[in-house]
Design goal:
- The structure is a single chain.
- It is built from 14 helices and 14 strands.
- By secondary structure, it is an alpha/beta fold.
- The protein has an 8-stranded mixed beta sheet, sandwiched between helices. Strands 2-4-3 form a 3-stranded antiparallel beta sheet.
- It is globular.
Length: 418
Amino acid sequence: MALKKKPVTGMKDILPKEMEIRNYVMNMIRETYGKFGFSSIETPCVEHIENLSSKQGGENEKLIFKILKRGEKLKLDTAETEADLVDSGLRYDLTVPLSRYYSNNANELPAPFKALQMGNVWRADRPQRGRFRQFMQCDIDILGEPTYLAEIELVLATTTLLGKLDFHNFTIRINDRKILKAMAQYSGFPEESFDTVFIILDKMDKIGLDGVAAELEKEGFSKESIDTYLGMFREVTGDIEGVRYLKDKLKDVLEPKVAEDLETIILSVDAVKTADFKIAFDPTLVRGMSYYTGPIFEIAMDEFGGSVGGGGRYDEMIGKFTGQNTSACGFSIGFERIVMLLLERGYEVPGTSVRKAYLIEKNMPADKLLKILKQAEEERSRGIQVNLSIMKKNKKFQKEQMSAEGYTEFVEFFRDKL
């Protein structure tokens, strides 16, 4: 049987041009987030299946690449349930592994702890534009900071990075899970049905208010609750005034501090931002992960047509490991989507060193080749990138290929001229 040369569905090979941009973005991430005080960490790509299936990851838990037990522990003949066969899986995000990491190492870490984590994750998802089954995630998290300073720092760090990568006119959409719940409670929806209500609300941008109303009615909710609920969305605005409107409207079911803190986050970010973006209150923002407990946010870019990053506060996840809740908040950028957008716009990595190609006549004598090698080493010591290649018959095509790789200068060496 012939071997297959194409990668597995949902995976991809990365060519040099893309790899150059990926490396540049990763270096920019480390540099920018480092200036905000974030420290790089790393967690294993394989995680305990119990952690991955703890009902913290929402729909992603249906997409786990599960790993069979190994050696004598794998007993196919006597297995009765999946648990008899599987004990681990590939991580589907970086938040669950981070929570385990912090729980295991908290005594050796500062408080609060600002973590930067970059690494591949895997989801058995349907591949599409900007979405793969293996992809790089980049997260920053602040653990042990209960105040809104965490949200402000995360949004500022992330938007500063995007500004440095030449992104403009994007929007940070922000909401709070407590506001979501208060709106549902005020409208009279039963608490046990909140998740169903939020799943339908999350489709607002695709099906509109009428579509949301129809689906809520289909689920059997009362018309009075539906009308009250959607009436608030018709009246609320996507700014500070919208936050203030809901603070007053929901005063019997929402702590005033929730709305006040959200207002402070929006005003603070807007006052000190360095990138070209707007931050907007969006009461329809849900975020799929069930572990969020407070403010949530997403990055919306018109050129992508969807979210290219998101995050929020998850104060209860670490407590699942330790028995004691720890304040936690994180923001993840869609690394693959950011790189894809840069490639589509023909982005050139700035400040790249001069790239020079030495084309050497075939069968160059050893003593003359040594002179060329020494010359190349001298140029490299001055910061010039030098690529040595044997001259091909079709020299024109060879130069075209190297030009496409970014080489701008060509030096030809012939034995009778050395």
